[in-house]
UniProtKB/TrEMBL annotation:
GO terms for molecular function: endopeptidase activity; metallopeptidase activity. It comes from the Bacteria. This is CPBP family intramembrane metalloprotease. GO terms for biological process: CAAX-box protein maturation; proteolysis. It comes from Croceibacterium xixiisoli. Pfam families: Rce1-like. Keywords: Hydrolase, Membrane, Metalloprotease, Protease, Transmembrane, Transmembrane helix. Residues 133-218 form the CAAX prenyl protease 2/Lysostaphin resistance protein A-like domain. The chain crosses the membrane at residues 20-38, 50-72, 87-112, 124-143, 163-195.
């Protein structure tokens, strides 16, 4: 006999179970990397830079997979939706804006705070020749942005949507920034997180924020190579 009961709609969007397993997976993969990296001597800056970007991207993708495998198992629910090319162009323009705005953020920050250069490893890699720069772009400007957007927008901002736009955009941006540590990069990441959060909220697609993040990271890496 077939039941006429309405289908259970509780799991139609990510919730706290997905947020929890995604963050646990993400942190569990990054912590061993950080412990290993701090033991490397200064002359291993290239290895640290490439390993850091690669593992960060992989960790984000693994976090999405963990959330996906938990109960929903439909990528569309996590923002994997086709979107018009106009939104992708907007995403690229927002990435360009974020790149320029980050210099203002950093200028103001360093008026009040002095700290070691947290991007030194990436700068060393970017200046280590075309091959190293190409690998860095692949890991830092493609793999890392995709992984981070998958988890922080596809899972976390998505789950927070149920509490409204403010919680979704600001909450996910704050968690994203916190994962970058207590430095000027916290504020750079907060800027990117707010902009990509708005794009995700507007479109429901992961691709415009991913383009923003790719353009932002890519421009910074090329900037490192010439300064």
């Amino acid at each position: 006999m077939q039941s006429n009961a309405a289908p259970n709609l509780t799991w139609q969007s990510p919730g706290w179970p997905e947020v929890t397993i995604a963050l646990v997976t993400y942190v569990a993969l990054l912590v061993p990397l950080l412990l290993w990296m701090v033991q490397l001597p200064p002359e291993q800056a290239v290895l640290r830079g490439l390993a850091g970007t690669a593992v960060n991207g992989i960790a984000g993708m693994a976090a999405l997979f963990a959330a996906f495998a938990l109960r929903i198992r439909r990528l569309r629910v996590f923002g994997f939706r086709t979107i018009s090319s106009s939104w992708l162009i907007i995403g690229a323009a927002v990435g360009l804006f974020a790149f320029g705005a980050s210099f203002i953020v950093e200028y103001v920050y360093f008026l009040f705070i002095t700290e070691p250069n947290t991007q030194a490893d990436f700068q060393v890699v970017a200046k280590s020749g075309p091959l190293m720069l190409s690998i860095l772009v692949l890991t830092g400007a493609i793999l890392t942005p995709l992984g981070e957007e998958f988890v922080f927008r596809g899972v976390i901002a998505n789950a927070f949507n149920r509490y409204g736009a403010w919680v979704s955009v600001i909450g996910s941006a704050l968690i994203f920034a916190a994962m970058h540590g207590p430095s000027v990069i916290f504020f750079d990441a907060l800027l990117v997180g707010l902009l990509t959060g708005v794009l995700f909220r507007k479109t429901g697609s992961i691709w415009p924020p991913a383009i923003t993040h790719i353009v932002y990271n890519g421009l910074h890496l090329f900037h490192y190579s010439i300064t």
